[in-house]
Design a protein that fits this description.
alpha+beta
Amino acid sequence: MLKRRAVIDRFSCSWFTTPQGAQEYYIACCSGGASSFENALDILNRNYLSALEDLGLHPDTLAFCRFHLSDIVNQKKILARSEVFKNVGFGAVSIVEQVPCSNDFALLFAYHVRGEQRQFHKEIFDYTADQTPAGASIAGNHYTMVWAANTSAPLAPDSHTQTTGLFSSFLASIERMGMTVRRNLIRSWMYVRDIDNHYQGMVDGRREFFSAHGLTPASRFIASTGIEGKGPDMHSLVTMDSLLLGNIAEEQIEVMNALENLSRPFSYGVTFERGLRVRFGDRSHLYISGTASIDNKGNILHDGDIEKQTHRTIDNIEALLGGQGATLEAMAYAVAYLRNPKHFPCVHQLLLRRLPPGLPLIIVEGAVCRQGWLFEMEGVAVTADATRFPPFF
């Protein structure tokens, strides 16, 4: 059952639990009208700890979190020394520059998983030079969840070569855990610096790598978001966050489509799916890729009209969910990206009207992969399910 709670100007959260499986929590925290970045981190820490207390969670139940910063070059070292950074050291930590459109220096999204203590074995791996925990492996009774953050290959000269190097490094890391891209990779976030100039190189490099490792139109691709964003290394043109699931059967993974509303991305050469449904014995996770105002032929709809583009994007997500017997009420969290932050007041009010009350929602500046798209949204939905597969964790 999915529940939500929101405390204005502090945090919002949703959580899902069944008698058979683990509890999972999606938390979005804001820093409010702070006077400085340091003050913002103090507020963010208080709000995060307040959310954990409210939910009865210990910090060590964290699996993954992401900080959305407004100036990563000048803020990442300050963040690394902060109390909130210490408190998220129990999971993988992603840091990305995507300026909050709200009145915040920084925003924090966190995903926690809790069950019987004996159910879980967690390992933190790939610490960076500043001791950021870039990876977390959480093994339960039935599955292993692996989160990897800020994967990059900054020494390569262009986005195509960086993407190839990034995936090669990523593959070597997951093979040590007995995982493969074809069998276990579920979700990625591709952050592209100066996306208008470097997106195509990322697309080409990813397509070539996927083709070489069994991800093709005849098999499946993954759920993904490709968006403007800057990773911690200023030389990285492409930075990736990712989610893998171990001990998952191929038949548990279903491609989500809504072909009357929007085409499959590979029809225009982009290798991701509109969404993936992963079915467990007690629930389904519906991973919604970055979705924009597109029609079923791959065309941009409502050129230049932010309000109509936002409506169409939500309509498309509703169609994807509807194909799986779900609605927007099943959404556990959402992230919205604006090419122009001046559109925030309009978009924010529209989202509040159309999305479920109390939904953890983050709105940041992030140019979409096509210049004509003004708005994009992604998220995860969770629904009750009953299958022959083991329950979640």
